[in-house]
Amino acid sequence: MNSKELQTIFHRLDVGSVSYDEPMSKHTTWKIGGPADMLVIPSEISHLQLLASTCAEHQIPWMVVGRGSNLLVKDGGIRGVVIKLSDNFANVSVAGNQLTAQAGRSFVSAANTAIRNGLQGLEFATGIPGTVGGAVMMNAGAHGGETRDVLISADIVEEDGSIRTLQNRDLQFAYRYSILKDCPRIVVQATFQLQPGNTEEMQKKVRGWTKRRQTTQPLQLPNCGSVFRNPENTHAGFLIEQSGLKGTVIGGAQISELHGNFIVNVNHAKAADVLALIELVQTTVHNRHGITLIPEVRIVGED
Description:
Layout: H1 3-10, E1 17-23, E2 35-41, H2 45-58, E3 62-65, E4 71-73, E5 78-84, E6 92-95, E7 98-102, H3 107-116, E8 119-120, H4 132-138, E9 141-142, E10 145-146, E11 151-157, E12 163-167, E13 186-193, E14 195-196, H5 199-216, H6 236-242, E15 249-250, E16 253-255, E17 263-265, H7 271-289, E18 298-300
Parallel strand pairs: 2-5, 3-5, 4-18
Antiparallel strand pairs: 1-2, 6-7, 7-13, 8-14, 9-10, 11-12, 11-13, 15-16, 16-17
Protein backbone atom coordinates (compact mmCIF):
# COMPACT_ATOMS: atom_id res chain seq x y z
CA MET A 1 0.00 0.00 0.00
CA ASN A 2 1.50 3.35 -1.06
CA SER A 3 0.93 6.92 0.10
CA LYS A 4 -1.82 7.60 -2.47
CA GLU A 5 -3.82 4.59 -1.29
CA LEU A 6 -3.37 5.70 2.31
CA GLN A 7 -4.63 9.18 1.44
CA THR A 8 -7.79 7.61 0.03
CA ILE A 9 -8.40 5.72 3.28
CA PHE A 10 -7.51 8.43 5.78
CA HIS A 11 -8.42 11.72 4.11
CA ARG A 12 -11.79 12.02 5.87
CA LEU A 13 -10.69 10.67 9.25
CA ASP A 14 -9.63 12.86 12.16
CA VAL A 15 -6.46 11.20 13.38
CA GLY A 16 -4.31 14.29 14.00
CA SER A 17 -1.74 16.04 11.80
CA VAL A 18 -0.93 13.94 8.72
CA SER A 19 1.85 14.14 6.13
CA TYR A 20 2.70 11.81 3.27
CA ASP A 21 6.09 10.68 1.94
CA GLU A 22 7.63 12.32 5.01
CA PRO A 23 11.46 12.07 5.31
CA MET A 24 12.20 10.23 8.55
CA SER A 25 15.55 12.04 8.70
CA LYS A 26 13.51 14.90 10.18
CA HIS A 27 12.29 12.66 12.99
CA THR A 28 15.39 10.80 14.19
CA THR A 29 18.27 12.07 16.30
CA TRP A 30 20.68 10.50 13.81
CA LYS A 31 19.19 12.75 11.09
CA ILE A 32 18.98 9.67 8.89
CA GLY A 33 16.07 7.89 7.23
CA GLY A 34 14.07 7.51 4.03
CA PRO A 35 10.41 8.55 3.65
CA ALA A 36 7.45 7.18 5.56
CA ASP A 37 4.39 6.61 3.36
CA MET A 38 2.31 8.39 5.99
CA LEU A 39 3.35 10.08 9.23
CA VAL A 40 0.71 11.00 11.80
CA ILE A 41 1.10 13.25 14.84
CA PRO A 42 -1.97 12.56 16.99
CA SER A 43 -2.96 14.71 19.95
CA GLU A 44 -5.83 12.74 21.49
CA ILE A 45 -6.38 9.16 22.61
CA SER A 46 -9.31 8.93 20.17
CA HIS A 47 -6.82 9.56 17.34
CA LEU A 48 -4.77 6.57 18.48
CA GLN A 49 -7.83 4.35 18.71
CA LEU A 50 -9.03 5.28 15.23
CA LEU A 51 -5.55 4.82 13.76
CA ALA A 52 -5.18 1.35 15.27
CA SER A 53 -8.63 0.13 14.24
CA THR A 54 -8.40 1.56 10.70
CA CYS A 55 -4.98 0.02 10.14
CA ALA A 56 -6.29 -3.32 11.40
CA GLU A 57 -9.37 -3.13 9.15
CA HIS A 58 -7.32 -2.42 6.03
CA GLN A 59 -4.29 -4.55 7.01
CA ILE A 60 -2.01 -1.52 6.93
CA PRO A 61 1.37 -1.95 8.63
CA TRP A 62 2.11 0.66 11.28
CA MET A 63 4.65 1.53 13.92
CA VAL A 64 5.10 4.08 16.70
CA VAL A 65 8.08 6.38 17.14
CA GLY A 66 8.90 8.94 19.80
CA ARG A 67 11.84 11.29 19.56
CA GLY A 68 13.71 8.92 17.27
CA SER A 69 16.63 8.65 19.68
CA ASN A 70 17.02 4.88 19.45
CA LEU A 71 16.00 4.43 15.83
CA LEU A 72 17.72 3.75 12.51
CA VAL A 73 15.39 4.09 9.54
CA LYS A 74 16.76 2.49 6.40
CA ASP A 75 17.21 4.56 3.25
CA GLY A 76 14.20 3.05 1.46
CA GLY A 77 11.91 4.40 4.16
CA ILE A 78 8.91 2.89 5.93
CA ARG A 79 5.85 1.42 4.27
CA GLY A 80 2.50 2.08 5.90
CA VAL A 81 1.79 4.41 8.80
CA VAL A 82 4.21 5.93 11.31
CA ILE A 83 2.60 7.31 14.47
CA LYS A 84 4.73 9.90 16.21
CA LEU A 85 4.21 10.54 19.93
CA SER A 86 6.33 13.40 21.22
CA ASP A 87 5.49 16.87 22.52
CA ASN A 88 1.98 16.38 21.13
CA PHE A 89 1.32 13.70 23.75
CA ALA A 90 3.28 14.80 26.78
CA ASN A 91 1.07 15.53 29.82
CA VAL A 92 2.53 14.66 33.24
CA SER A 93 1.04 14.66 36.73
CA VAL A 94 2.08 13.79 40.28
CA ALA A 95 -0.22 12.32 42.93
CA GLY A 96 1.37 11.38 46.24
CA ASN A 97 4.41 9.24 45.46
CA GLN A 98 3.22 8.34 41.96
CA LEU A 99 4.01 10.04 38.65
CA THR A 100 1.93 9.50 35.53
CA ALA A 101 3.22 10.64 32.13
CA GLN A 102 1.87 10.32 28.62
CA ALA A 103 3.90 8.26 26.16
CA GLY A 104 5.30 11.23 24.23
CA ARG A 105 6.76 12.91 27.32
CA SER A 106 10.54 13.10 27.31
CA PHE A 107 11.83 10.55 29.83
CA VAL A 108 14.36 13.14 30.97
CA SER A 109 11.58 15.67 31.53
CA ALA A 110 9.48 13.14 33.45
CA ALA A 111 12.45 12.37 35.68
CA ASN A 112 13.13 16.05 36.30
CA THR A 113 9.48 16.58 37.21
CA ALA A 114 9.80 13.83 39.81
CA ILE A 115 12.98 15.35 41.21
CA ARG A 116 11.44 18.83 41.48
CA ASN A 117 8.56 17.25 43.40
CA GLY A 118 10.93 15.55 45.83
CA LEU A 119 10.41 12.04 44.45
CA GLN A 120 13.26 9.63 43.85
CA GLY A 121 13.51 6.56 41.65
CA LEU A 122 13.63 8.05 38.15
CA GLU A 123 17.01 9.77 38.37
CA PHE A 124 18.52 7.15 36.04
CA ALA A 125 16.19 8.41 33.28
CA THR A 126 17.95 11.78 33.10
CA GLY A 127 20.51 10.09 30.86
CA ILE A 128 17.99 8.56 28.43
CA PRO A 129 17.04 10.87 25.53
CA GLY A 130 13.82 9.10 24.53
CA THR A 131 10.15 9.16 25.46
CA VAL A 132 8.23 7.51 28.27
CA GLY A 133 6.54 5.22 25.75
CA GLY A 134 9.84 4.14 24.26
CA ALA A 135 11.27 3.56 27.72
CA VAL A 136 8.39 1.25 28.60
CA MET A 137 8.61 -0.63 25.32
CA MET A 138 12.34 -1.37 25.63
CA ASN A 139 12.77 -1.30 29.41
CA ALA A 140 15.21 1.57 29.06
CA GLY A 141 17.88 1.89 31.70
CA ALA A 142 21.04 3.71 32.77
CA HIS A 143 23.19 4.20 35.87
CA GLY A 144 22.09 0.87 37.32
CA GLY A 145 18.35 1.62 37.08
CA GLU A 146 15.71 0.31 34.67
CA THR A 147 12.15 1.24 33.80
CA ARG A 148 10.81 -2.00 35.26
CA ASP A 149 12.20 -1.07 38.67
CA VAL A 150 9.64 1.71 39.12
CA LEU A 151 6.83 1.11 36.63
CA ILE A 152 3.42 0.25 38.09
CA SER A 153 1.38 0.01 34.89
CA ALA A 154 0.97 1.23 31.34
CA ASP A 155 -2.22 2.08 29.46
CA ILE A 156 -2.08 0.80 25.89
CA VAL A 157 -4.23 0.87 22.77
CA GLU A 158 -4.80 -2.59 21.32
CA GLU A 159 -4.92 -3.38 17.59
CA ASP A 160 -8.71 -3.12 17.59
CA GLY A 161 -8.61 0.35 19.16
CA SER A 162 -9.61 -0.73 22.66
CA ILE A 163 -7.73 0.55 25.70
CA ARG A 164 -6.19 -1.82 28.23
CA THR A 165 -4.06 -1.40 31.32
CA LEU A 166 -1.03 -3.69 31.61
CA GLN A 167 0.61 -4.18 34.98
CA ASN A 168 4.37 -4.42 35.39
CA ARG A 169 4.28 -8.24 35.42
CA ASP A 170 2.18 -8.32 32.23
CA LEU A 171 4.96 -6.61 30.28
CA GLN A 172 7.40 -9.50 30.84
CA PHE A 173 10.36 -7.19 31.22
CA ALA A 174 13.91 -8.35 30.53
CA TYR A 175 17.12 -6.55 29.61
CA ARG A 176 16.11 -3.89 27.04
CA TYR A 177 12.91 -5.82 26.37
CA SER A 178 9.20 -5.88 27.05
CA ILE A 179 6.42 -7.84 25.38
CA LEU A 180 5.49 -4.61 23.54
CA LYS A 181 8.48 -5.15 21.24
CA ASP A 182 6.79 -8.24 19.83
CA CYS A 183 3.23 -7.04 19.29
CA PRO A 184 1.69 -3.93 17.72
CA ARG A 185 0.30 -1.90 20.62
CA ILE A 186 0.50 1.79 21.40
CA VAL A 187 1.57 2.97 24.83
CA VAL A 188 -0.70 5.83 25.90
CA GLN A 189 0.71 6.62 29.33
CA ALA A 190 2.63 5.05 32.19
CA THR A 191 2.48 5.34 35.98
CA PHE A 192 5.55 5.04 38.19
CA GLN A 193 5.86 4.30 41.91
CA LEU A 194 8.48 6.58 43.46
CA GLN A 195 9.69 7.37 46.97
CA PRO A 196 10.27 10.63 48.88
CA GLY A 197 13.74 12.03 48.30
CA ASN A 198 15.87 15.13 48.71
CA THR A 199 15.60 17.32 45.62
CA GLU A 200 18.97 19.02 46.14
CA GLU A 201 20.82 15.72 46.59
CA MET A 202 19.17 14.19 43.53
CA GLN A 203 19.98 17.25 41.40
CA LYS A 204 23.61 17.10 42.53
CA LYS A 205 23.87 13.44 41.52
CA VAL A 206 22.28 14.14 38.14
CA ARG A 207 24.63 17.08 37.48
CA GLY A 208 27.57 14.73 38.04
CA TRP A 209 26.22 12.22 35.54
CA THR A 210 25.52 14.99 33.02
CA LYS A 211 29.04 16.37 33.31
CA ARG A 212 30.51 12.92 32.72
CA ARG A 213 28.34 12.37 29.62
CA GLN A 214 29.40 15.70 28.21
CA THR A 215 33.06 14.73 28.44
CA THR A 216 32.79 11.09 27.34
CA GLN A 217 30.02 11.09 24.71
CA PRO A 218 29.81 12.90 21.32
CA LEU A 219 26.62 14.77 22.19
CA GLN A 220 27.34 17.60 19.77
CA LEU A 221 26.97 15.31 16.72
CA PRO A 222 23.83 13.49 15.50
CA ASN A 223 23.73 10.06 17.15
CA CYS A 224 21.29 7.49 18.55
CA GLY A 225 22.92 6.92 21.92
CA SER A 226 24.44 3.50 22.53
CA VAL A 227 24.34 1.37 19.38
CA PHE A 228 24.98 -2.02 21.02
CA ARG A 229 23.79 -3.73 24.17
CA ASN A 230 26.42 -4.35 26.82
CA PRO A 231 27.36 -8.05 27.00
CA GLU A 232 27.38 -9.67 30.42
CA ASN A 233 30.34 -8.62 32.58
CA THR A 234 31.77 -6.14 30.07
CA HIS A 235 30.91 -3.07 27.99
CA ALA A 236 30.37 -2.84 24.24
CA GLY A 237 32.30 0.44 24.04
CA PHE A 238 35.34 -1.14 25.70
CA LEU A 239 35.33 -4.10 23.30
CA ILE A 240 35.01 -1.80 20.28
CA GLU A 241 37.83 0.43 21.49
CA GLN A 242 40.05 -2.60 22.23
CA SER A 243 39.42 -3.75 18.67
CA GLY A 244 40.94 -0.52 17.33
CA LEU A 245 37.75 0.72 15.70
CA LYS A 246 37.35 4.17 17.23
CA GLY A 247 37.35 6.83 14.53
CA THR A 248 36.56 4.40 11.68
CA VAL A 249 34.61 6.09 8.89
CA ILE A 250 32.32 4.58 6.27
CA GLY A 251 30.61 7.10 4.00
CA GLY A 252 29.23 9.87 6.18
CA ALA A 253 29.17 7.84 9.40
CA GLN A 254 31.92 7.41 11.97
CA ILE A 255 32.52 5.33 15.09
CA SER A 256 33.01 8.12 17.59
CA GLU A 257 36.54 8.99 18.64
CA LEU A 258 35.15 9.77 22.10
CA HIS A 259 33.09 6.63 22.78
CA GLY A 260 33.28 3.33 20.92
CA ASN A 261 29.59 2.51 21.35
CA PHE A 262 28.47 5.66 19.54
CA ILE A 263 28.18 6.02 15.77
CA VAL A 264 27.88 9.63 14.66
CA ASN A 265 26.61 11.30 11.52
CA VAL A 266 29.54 13.45 10.42
CA ASN A 267 28.70 14.14 6.78
CA HIS A 268 25.14 13.50 5.60
CA ALA A 269 25.36 9.81 6.45
CA LYS A 270 23.02 7.24 4.95
CA ALA A 271 21.54 4.35 6.88
CA ALA A 272 23.64 2.07 4.68
CA ASP A 273 26.78 3.70 6.07
CA VAL A 274 25.68 3.05 9.65
CA LEU A 275 24.67 -0.52 8.86
CA ALA A 276 28.06 -1.15 7.30
CA LEU A 277 29.77 0.11 10.47
CA ILE A 278 27.51 -2.05 12.63
CA GLU A 279 28.45 -5.12 10.59
CA LEU A 280 32.15 -4.20 10.74
CA VAL A 281 31.99 -3.85 14.52
CA GLN A 282 30.18 -7.15 14.97
CA THR A 283 32.63 -9.04 12.76
CA THR A 284 35.76 -7.46 14.24
CA VAL A 285 34.73 -7.79 17.88
CA HIS A 286 33.67 -11.40 17.36
CA ASN A 287 36.95 -12.28 15.67
CA ARG A 288 39.05 -10.64 18.39
CA HIS A 289 37.04 -11.31 21.52
CA GLY A 290 34.67 -14.15 20.64
CA ILE A 291 31.65 -12.00 21.55
CA THR A 292 28.79 -11.14 19.20
CA LEU A 293 27.48 -7.65 19.92
CA ILE A 294 23.72 -7.25 19.62
CA PRO A 295 22.37 -3.89 18.42
CA GLU A 296 20.35 -1.97 20.98
CA VAL A 297 19.21 0.49 18.35
CA ARG A 298 15.92 -0.35 16.63
CA ILE A 299 16.46 -0.86 12.89
CA VAL A 300 13.36 -0.45 10.70
CA GLY A 301 12.34 0.19 7.10
CA GLU A 302 13.44 -0.96 3.68
CA ASP A 303 16.85 -0.83 1.95
